Amino acid sequence: MQNRISRGVLILLLFLPALVAAQSGVEYQPLSPEALRESNGGGPIDFRVLVDVANLGGEETRIAELTFSPDYEGQAHVHDAIEIFYVLSGHFGHNVNGVAGVLEPGEVGICRPGDTIIHSVEGEEPAVVLTIWLPGGAAAPFHSP
After folding, report:
1. Tens-digit pLDDT string for the chain (145 aa)
2. Do the domain assignments include residue 49?
3. CATH number for position 31
4. What stretch of H or E contains 20?
5. Which residues span the domain enclosing 81?
6. Looking at the 3D structure of the chain, how many domains does it have?
7. Is residue 145 part of a domain?
């Protein structure tokens, strides 16, 4: 499934965890520089965790910016939760249940629980993708310690 999403909706999605936390009585705290983890580089995926249990106070969601190297070709996998992708730059191969497509900047891809997913980078530049997991515990290996 490919859709265009407005920047306003994207901003709402980014702040939704803070709104949920506020409703549940959990005080929202921005991630410290120590908690904002990044991969060591050189691997196929670099990531920056933007929202997780460290600043949300719960595992309702996790949001990360993932940068996939140009030669990235993922393996088929399944999640037990919703995974939403918003492409910031590059061309992100998004194969769900055997239906292949390419997401471009400004487009959204969605995977539902039980879907078989394969991701790849199409083209010669990295794909930078904002990724949202609902619930956040499904975001392995991007869990906080």
Report:
1. 445 556 655 655 655 555 555 555 555 566 555 455 556 556 788 888 888 777 777 788 888 899 999 999 999 998 888 999 999 999 999 999 999 999 999 999 999 999 999 999 999 999 999 999 988 766 655 433 3
2. yes
3. 2.60.120.10
4. helix 7-23
5. 3-138
6. 1
7. no
